Amino acid sequence: MAKTNPSLIPMLTRSYISAEMRDKKKQKINTGGWVKDRKRNIPTQENGSDCGMFASKFAEYASRRAKIDFDQIHMLYFRKRMAWEILQQRLI
Questions:
Q1: Where is each Ubiquitin-like protease family profile domain found (predicted)?
Q2: Over 70: is that where the pLDDT of 57 sits?
Q3: Between the CA of residue 48 and those of 39, 44, 52, 61, 71, what are the distances in Å?
């Protein structure tokens, strides 16, 4: 069984975001103050097509500091809601 490295994901995330900032904005970003926040017992994706929706919802809930109370069963609703928001150019 493969061993896990808990510091790998934050390191790769910081590296990726720093590279994107340099490429897109021609600026440096200071990630030194970032805090790792690893959640346990969170919902998991149960198919091969909802990864983007899960990422979007995790980011949205984190930005509101909301309790993560969604699951795979809610993804169709979230997809429809996101499509509506994009078409209407308005968040609900």
A1: 12-87
A2: yes
A3: 22, 11, 10, 22, 15
Which pair of tokens denotes residue 70? 């969604």
DSSP symbols for 39-88: -SS-----SSS-HHHHHHHHHHHHHTT------GGGHHHHHHHHHHHHHH
Identity of the residue numbered 85: E
> What is the dihedral angle through the alpha carbons of 72, 78, 83, 87, rounded to the nearest 10 degrees?
-170
Question: In sequence order, which residues have a C-beta less than 8 Å from that of residue 72 and are 6 or more positions away?
Answer: 43, 44, 45, 46, 47, 50
Q: What pLDDT, in 10s, does the model give residues 3-40? A: 667 677 778 888 999 999 999 999 999 988 888 777 78
Structure tokens at 4: 């896990």
Place of tokens 């805090």: 35
For the purposes of burial, counting CB atoms within 10 Å of the CB of 55, is it exposed (0-12), middle (13-18) or buried (19 or more)?
A: exposed
